Amino acid sequence: MPALLEVAGISKNFRGLRAVHDASFDIAEGSINALIGPNGAGKTTIFNMVAGVYRPDSGSIAFDRKPIHGLRPDQICAAGIGRTFQVVKPFAGLSVLDNVMVGAFLTEKTSAGARKVSLAVLEKLHLAAKCDLPASSLTLPDRKRLEVARALATRPRLLLLDEAMAGLRPTECDQMVEVFRELNRTDGLTILLIEHVMRAVMALAQHIGVLHHGEVIARGSPEKIVRDAAVLECYLGEETEV
Amino acid sequence: MIARLLEGVPRRGLVALAALLLVLLVFPAFASGYLLAVGFLILYFAFVGQAWNIMMGFAGQLSLGHSLYVGLGAYAAAALYVHFGVSPWIGLGASIATAVLAGAVIGFLAFRFGVAGVYFAILTIAFSEFARIGFDHFTWVQGSSGFFLPVTNYAANDLWNLRGSPTMFYYLMLGMTAGAFVLCHALLRSRMGYYWLAIRESQEAAQALGVNVFRYKMYAVMISAAMTSLAGIVFAFYYNNLFPEQIFHISRSIELILGPIIGGIGTLVGPLVGALLLTGLAEGMREAMLQLGIDVPGVKQVFYGVCLLLVVMFLPNGVWPPLAKAFGFERRSTDRGER
Ligand SMILES: Nc1ncnc2c1ncn2[C@@H]1O[C@H](COP(=O)(O)OP(=O)(O)O)[C@@H](O)[C@H]1O
Ligand SMILES: [Mg+2]
After folding, report:
1. Cβ atoms of residues B173 and B44 within 8 Å
2. Which residues sit opposite A66 in a β-bridge?
3. Is A12 in the pocket of ligand 1 (CB under 6 A)?
4. What's the total number of domains in chain A?
5. Is A141 buried (19+), middle (13-18) or exposed (0-12) by CB count in 10 A?
6. Cβ–Cβ contacts within 10 Å for residue B296, how many?
7. A165 in the same domain as A131
C-alpha cells in the first residue's frame, strides 16, 4: 500500500541552529504513528514543515503522492492535513462552537451545515455542553480538546497532533486515546502524534519514530522501540512519564 | 431569505430594532431643521462606523485612513455629476470602483509584504495624506480652491440627482444605515464573517484551518472601502462643496472611528450606539451651552476626548456589550456571541 505521507530527507536550520536534519519517514494510510524525542529534538519543526508553516531547506514532502512542500498552510489543510498546535491557539473571543465552525467551513458552505458538523465533532470530544462558552473561559484540558475539535472539523485524512495530551490527567488522557482510536477505526483517520506521555503513545501507536538532535535515530514498532539501546539512552531513560 | 436572516436573533432584540426604526422613520415629522441635521449626522456616522468596523471589528485590521474612501467616493460621483450631468446613482459605480481600487492597493502592499498592526495603520494614513495633497493639485476638480455642486432651490425633491431637502437626505441616510446593518449582520454569520473573526483572533490558527488569510483580509478592505465611498457621495451632495484639506484630512478619519470604538468594536449595534451618543450628546451639549450664552470654540473636540477617555478606562469593550447584557439582547445557543 502506498504511503499517505512521504517525508524524504527534510532539513531545517534556524540561523545556523540545526533543528531538523535529513529526516525521512513514511506514514501508511489508516495507521497511527508517534514521533517521540526529548524537548528541542525538532518534532514541532517537522510538523511545521509538513503543515506548511516553514518550507524545508531541503528534501521533499508528498501527501497522497503529490508534493506539498512550498504550499501555504491553508492549502495544505485543504489538501487534507489537519493539525493542532502544541501551544494552543484558540480564537479566544469566539464561543467554543464558533471556533469549531471556522474549521467546518472548509467543507461546508452554509452556516447551518457547518454548525451541524461542528456539534457532531464537539459531541465526540465531550465538549458539546460547553459549546456556548467563550473559548477564553476554557481550562487547559478543554482548550486541548478544542484544538483537536477544530482540526477534526476540517475533515482531514491525516491528523497531526502536537502534544495533544500533555497536561491531561490520566483519566482524561485515556478518554482522548479512546477518541483517537475510535476516529481511526470508524473513519479510517490516519494519525501522527507528537507525545511525551508514553502511556498514550504505547496505547495508540503502531509505529514510532524517535527524533534526537534533529535526526531520526530509530523507527519501528513500540515493542522494538522500548528495547532499542540508543533510544533508552537518549530519551526513555532520562525523562519518561508513564 | 428573511427567515434565515432572523434566525437566532433574540425576539426582544427584534422588537427593539423595529421600535428604533419606527422612531427614526417618524422623527422628521416632529424635528426642527436643526434636529433633522443632527439626525442626519448621527445616521451618517453610524453608517461609516459600520463600514470601518468591518475592517477593524471583524477582520482586526486597523485603518486610520478611511477619509480616503469618503473623499474618493465624494469626488468621483460629484465630478461625474458636475462635468457630465451623470446621476450619482450611476456615478456610484465610479465611486465604488475608485475606492475599492485604492483599498486593494493598500491591502495588497500591506498583506503581501507583512505590514501589520501599527505599521498597517500608518500606511492607511499615508495613503489618505497622498490623496489630500494630490487632490490639492487636481485641477479637473478645482484643486485646493474647492469643488462646488450647483445648488438649486428645494422646491421639489429630485432623488435621481440627489437634489432636494434635508428630509430627503435624512431618509436616504436612514435607508443606507439600515441596509449596512442588515448587510453586516448577514456577513457576520456567513463563512466570510467567521473567517474574518478567526483572522482577528489568530491568523496562524485561521490558516491552519484552511483560511486563505490574504484573500479574506483583501475582501474586508474592499467591502469596507466600497461602503465608505457611498457615504462620501451623500456627503458631497448634501454639503455641495468639497475641499481636499477637509474631506481627506486625518481628523475626519479619526472622527469616524470614535463612534464604533465608544459603541463597541466588532459589535453590530456598537457603531449605532456610538454615533448616537457622540453626535447626539455633543450637539445637545453645544446647544445647551449656547442657550446659556456660553460659546467656547473646540468644546466638541474636548467632549469627544472626554468620552473616549471614560470609555477606554471604564468600558474597554465599548458601551454596547454591557448594555446588551443588561437588556438580554445576547444571542444564545444555536448562534454565536459577538465578542
Ligand atoms: N521559529 C524558530 N526560530 C528559531 N529557532 C527555533 C524556531 N522553532 C524552533 N526552533 C529551535 O529548533 C529546535 C527544535 O525545536 P522544536 O521543533 O520546537 O522541538 P520539539 O518540538 O521537539 O521540542 C529547538 O532548539 C528550538 O529552539
Ligand atoms: Mg514541540
Report:
1. yes
2. A63
3. no
4. 2
5. middle
6. 9
7. no
Asked, for residue A148, whether it belongs to a domain, the answer is no
A86 at the B interface (CB within 8 A)?
no
Residues A112 and A136 in one domain: yes
Residue A42 CA to ligand 1 centre (angstroms) = 6
Which residue in the set A77, A90, A132 is minimally distant from B208, CB to CB?
Answer: A77
Residue A189 and residue A138 in one domain: no
Q: Which of A143, A165, A182 is the last residue of a domain?
A: A143
Q: Contact, B226 vs B104, CB < 8 A?
A: no
Question: Are A154 and B209 within 8 A, CB to CB?
Answer: yes
- Kindly report the backbone phi and psi dihedral angles of residue A113, in degrees, each rounded to the nearest multiple of 5, phi listed first: -65, -45
Nearest CA to ligand 1 atom 17: A42
- Indicate the length of chain B as a whole number: 339
Same domain? A94 vs A75: no
For strand A207-212 and strand A32-36, is the pairing parallel, antiparallel, or unpaired?
parallel
CATH of the domain at A189: 3.40.50.300
Secondary structure E strands in B108-237: 147-148
Which strand (E) or helix (H) includes residue A157?
A: none
The alpha carbon of residue A161 is apart from the nearest alpha carbon of chain B, in Å, by 13
Domain-located, residue A219: yes
In a domain, A85, yes or no: no
Q: For residue B59, which residues of chain A lie inside 8 Å, CB to CB? A: none
**Tens digit of each residue's pLDDT, chain A (242 residues):** 679 999 999 999 999 899 999 999 999 999 999 999 999 999 999 999 999 999 999 999 999 999 999 999 999 999 999 999 999 999 999 999 999 999 999 999 999 999 999 999 999 999 999 999 999 999 999 999 999 999 999 999 999 999 999 989 999 999 999 999 999 999 999 999 999 888 889 999 999 999 999 999 999 999 888 887 667 666 655 544 44
Nearest-CA residue for ligand 1 atom 12 is: A19
Instruction: List CB contacts (< 8 A) between B198 and chain A.
Output: 91, 94, 102
Domain of A210, in residue numbers: 3-80+156-239
State residue B262 phi and psi, 5-degree precision. -70, -35
Compare CB distances from B189 to A51, A111, A154 and report the shortest one's residue: A111
CA distance B128 to A141: 47
The answer on A163 and A117 residing in a single domain is no
Domain contains A149 = no
